[in-house]
Amino acid sequence: MTQSGISQHLRKLEEFLGVALIQRQGRQFTPTEAGRKLYGEAHEIVESLSTLSQRLGEDPVYEGLVRILSPGSVGLKLYPRFLKIQQGHPKLIIDYRFAPNRDVERSLLEYRCDMGLMTSPSALDEIASQPVASEALILVTPVAIKNTDWSTLLKLGYVGHPDGAYHASLLLGANYLEFQHVDMFALRGFSNQISLILEPVSLGLGFTVLPEHAVNAFDRPELIRSHRLETPVSETLFLATRRHRALPARVKNLIAMAREWL
């Protein structure tokens, strides 16, 4: 470019930005503070653009953010293992949240989640869900309770949680002719925190029904008793992703690990 062409571009840039970029002294000039800032930031932008195609082609297995949603029970099993992977690969970021099925589906639909686990298959065309494991449902009582006949459960009362009515209907409905719905039991407490549901049970306040991973994660197992009933019932876990979405390598890698661990 000619010197006059450069001067014309500078004037147009100064008009657009509304600030002086250079201080003119005849044929000489020095950059103003705004000019120095513009040069520095523009230099970084040009450098970034020059490597953009290279960075777009990269797909590292252990770098970047992975967003996972699942029920709390299986989360108690998977999240600590994912954190160990992150410890060995600091550029990998795990965002793990506990959520019910409807929230998992919504997050996948809105691209706010990379992978999810659900306790029922998705009916939405946009969501692909495949069975990956089954998890036993367990009747849990205070440790002193050895007999789980109907009258004992009625006397104990029930400790609720968000999936409690559903879990109780599956397990108790398959093993007790008297069972109709969970409201038949006196409610002794309720918690929406998966790690706290067994606290009142351990204190002798009632019984509950939980998936096996949640029971195994309780840190004072000597205070509770797990009962395997005559008719076992398991809950199927489904791995869900957004259909037709090309998943990055880091997500595929964690999906493979989750399948193996489950």
Q: What distinguishing features does this structure have?
A:
262 residues; alpha/beta; Arc Repressor Mutant, subunit A; D-Maltodextrin-Binding Protein, domain 2; two-stranded antiparallel sheet; 10 helices; 11 strands; 41% helix; 25% strand
Provide a descriptive summary of the structure in words.
The chain is α/β, with parallel strands linked by helices. The protein folds into 3 domains: 3-57, Winged helix-like DNA-binding domain superfamily/Winged helix DNA-binding domain (Arc Repressor Mutant, subunit A, Orthogonal Bundle); 64-133 and 236-261, 3-Layer(aba) Sandwich (D-Maltodextrin-Binding Protein, domain 2), CATH 3.40.190.10; 135-234, Periplasmic binding protein-like II (D-Maltodextrin-Binding Protein, domain 2). The chain is 41% helix and 25% strand. The chain contains 10 helices and 11 strands. The mean pLDDT is 92.
Helix content: 40-55%
Mean pLDDT across all amino acids: 92
Please tally the helical runs, counting DSSP H or I stretches of 4 or more residues.
10
What is the first-to-last residue Cα distance?
65 Å
Total beta strands: 11
User: Stretches where pLDDT falls below 50 for ≥5 residues?
Assistant: none
By CATH, the topology of the largest domain is: D-Maltodextrin-Binding Protein, domain 2
Shape verdict = elongated
Corresponding CATH superfamily of the largest domain:
Periplasmic binding protein-like II
Radius of gyration: 29 Å
Beta-strand portion reads: 25-35%
Total domains: 3
Question: CATH class of the largest domain, anyone?
Answer: Alpha Beta
Largest sheet: 7 strands, mixed
Series of secondary-structure elements, N-terminal to C-terminal: HEEHHEHEHEEHEHEHEHEEH
Category by helix and strand content: alpha/beta
CATH architecture of the largest domain: 3-Layer(aba) Sandwich
